[in-house]
Amino acid sequence: MHNGIRMTTLVKRAMLVCAGVLFTYEVAFGSVHTALASTEDEAKSVQLVSEIQTSLAPKEAPKHYNGQVRKVAYLTFDDGPGKYTAELLDMLKKENAKATFFLIGSNVKAFPDLVKREDAEGHYVGMHSMTHNYKKLYTEGHYVDEMKEDQGLIAGVLGKSPVLTRPSYGSMPGLNEALRNKVVENGLKVWDWTIDSLDWKYNKMQVDAASAKIVENVLAHSTNPTEVILMHDIHPQSVKAVPGIIKGLKEKGYELEAYNENEHFPLNFWHDNRM
Question: Domain NodB homology: where (predicted)?
Answer without folding.
Answer: 71-257
